[in-house]
Amino acid sequence: MQAPSAKTAEISDYGLLGDCQGSALVSRDGSIDWWCPPRFDAPSIFSRLLDHDTGHWIIRPIGDYTVTRRYLPGTMVLETEFQCDNGDLLLTDALALGPGERGHEVGHNSPHMLLRQVEVTRGSVEVTVEVAPRPEYGLITPHFVQTSTGWSIIGGANRLTLTAGPSLTVEDGSLGGTFTLEAGESTVFALHHRDAVLPPPPATDGASELENTIAAWRSWSEIHQGYRGAYREQVHRSALVLQTLTYSPTGAVVAAPTTSLPEEPGGSANWDYRFGWLRDGSLTLKALWVAACPDEAHQFFDWITMSAGALGEGHLQIMFGVGGEHNLTEHELDHLAGYAESRPVRVGNDAWDQKQLDVLGEVFECAWVLREQLGELPAETRDFLVAVGDKAAETWQERDSGIWEGREGTRDYVTSKLMCWVALDRALKLADRLGAAQKVPVWERERDRVRDAILEKGWDSSVKAFTGAFGSDHLDAGVLLMPIMGFLPADDDRILATLDAIERELTSGNLIQRWTGSGGEGAFIICSYWLATARAMAGEPERAREIFEAVTGYANDLGLLSEEIDIKDGRLIGNFPQGLSHIGLINAAWAITQAEDDQAGQAGIH
User: Fold this and answer.
1) Higher-scoring residue by pLDDT: 201, 72
2) Are the CB atoms for 254 and 322 separated by under 8 Å?
3) In sequence order, what are the residues at sequence separation of 6 or more whose Cβ sits closer than 8 angstroms to the Cβ of residue 372?
4) How many CA atoms lie within 13 A of 318 on its CB side?
5) Quick one: 201 and 295 in the same domain?
6) C-alpha separations of 17 from 24, 79, 387, 419, 425 in Å
7) What CATH code is carried by the domain that includes residue 409?
């Protein structure tokens, strides 16, 4: 393998690094092509992922090599082994975790520092290094000042401090150099980010920082290893991914750490996913609970109630910044070419202002999932949840934009009505704890009305399935949530018929597209996991396993999943890695475990 040209790397070529406040992506060939410190949605320092000339950090052997890589067990610390003719080079990459951070506290005091250790394990290897920061999505070429321990890198509102052993020189706006290591020799680079107004950090011992980070991740894993069900290894890796996508100071979980990786390469469906969606809320909580992360589940629920605030006359906002920010107005970065020339590149996401009625149900389902652990609810949380129940009762008949956030207008989406039913059903079950006995008659009446409407208008006898919207004969994979949310039993004849119709019309090789007429759009990974979950709940764990293993087989060599799979060639596409895909994996694995336990119990197997 030669050092690559400017050709765009495949999404699956990347590994994820994280410090539970921000993240970085590193390619198979040792190039960090994405880093947005100090938090997920900050302007990038490296963004070669979106344009070849907007920042990267390369460490790799000179000449030909083959590559194998893995995460150190129980961590998000990545080892990449380059096997060369004259020797083997081991590159260990991490985003540093703070000293003393252990267990549930991982990520609270992250120093925003990339660590890269280079070690030769056999023979002799000549190594090349190129550090090319381009702050603010490539708009700034910084100035380099040599120091006694490395380099100070100055540009705009950012300051970077590079601690480096080997000698580097400045050329064409980059730091670069080559050096040779013999077997048993190693060196560590540390690149620290801070705001320009802050003082320089103290001298960094990169090797000690790396050891601390490995220990911190393993301490987190040791207390989050309670899952003992099917596909344990995949569930544990997905739990680590979700923790990496968590903004520890608030508990928010971002949908993905990237922006504008296209749903169709070369197309314009390129969105910024570095925010927290309420739509994903209950599924996230269930996944965290299954993966034995109860503290994180509580923190996430607290972030939801904190971010949403008082619910006034308007609709409940569907998404927020990781700090609880409401205004996520979208704009385009015209100077960037985009991943695989997929333009525009967007920062922010205008879906924040859409009306999506499903979020009402998501909020209440979160409370329901945590009902036994929440204790006595604060007055402000009770008031908020009561207002959400009232909003569902008042607005369930309205049209909205649906869970797929289409920008073509509003409709009577079945999934949105379903989640309004969930809101009212869970509100009734929690009414006593909310001090809302007086609300019960209205909530009960409207819950029954929305249920009747779904059964009457959501079912299409011509296609023998629940469809995507009232009055439509088009299928929509979102209705797979009906048995998952308990609207109807999974073995109900209408649900089974709907599952069969979705498999027949929307599925290719166990990969499911979102709706009838999706065309060349990729298959949404979460939809396949929803189908696996529904089949397991219907008492068909063998079929559920087939679906689960087929879709999970598309994960890259590190077990990471994107948002979609290209139905033409099986490539991972869309923002990466996608939290909702890993959430679906965890919940489907648990559904399969429960279904197999039920079958074993019925057969008298102990």
Assistant:
1) 72
2) yes
3) none
4) 22
5) no
6) 5, 11, 39, 34, 40
7) 1.50.10.10
CB crowding 60-72: b at 16 or more within 10 Å, else e: bbeeebebebebe
Pairing of β 14-18 and β 23-27 = antiparallel
CA-to-CA distance for 149 and 371, rounded, in angstroms?
53
At 91-111, the pLDDT tens digits run 999 999 988 777 667 767 889
Residue type at 606 in one-letter notation? H
Claim: this prediction has a pTM higher than 0.85: yes
Same domain for 405 and 295, yes or no, is yes
Helix/strand/coil for 336: coil
C-alpha to C-alpha distance for 484 and 409, rounded to whole angstroms: 27
Look up the domain containing 148 and give its range.
Answer: 11-221
Of 184, 203, 221, the last residue of a domain is 221
At 462 the three-state DSSP class reads: coil
Count, residues in the chain = 606
Cα torsion angle, 283, 288, 292, 297, sign: negative
Q: What is the pLDDT of residue 153?
A: 95
Instruction: Look at phi and psi of residue 603 and say left if phi exceeds 0, alpha if psi is from -120 to 50, else beta.
Output: alpha
Task: Specify the residue for token string 């079912």.
Answer: 459
Could you read off the pLDDT of 421-467 as tens digits, one per residue?
999 999 999 999 999 999 999 999 999 999 999 999 999 999 999 99
Assess whether 368 and 423 both reside in one domain: yes
Q: How many domains does the chain have?
A: 2
Query: pLDDT: is 523 or 285 the higher one?
Result: 523
In whole angstroms, what is the distance from residue 300 CA to residue 276 CA? 10
Q: Is the predicted pLDDT of residue 170 greater than 50, yes or no?
A: yes
Q: Give the DSSP per-residue string, 469-525.
A: BTT----BGGGGHHHHTTSS-TTSHHHHHHHHHHHHHTEETTEE-SBTT-TTPPEEH
Tell me which H or E stretch contains 594: helix 579-602
Q: Quick check: 560 pLDDT over 70?
A: yes
pLDDT on residue 312:
65
- Region 300-319: mean pLDDT is 80
- Are 214 and 322 in the same domain? no
CA torsion 364-287-561-559 (nearest 10°) is: 170
Helix (H) or strand (E) holding 94: strand 87-95
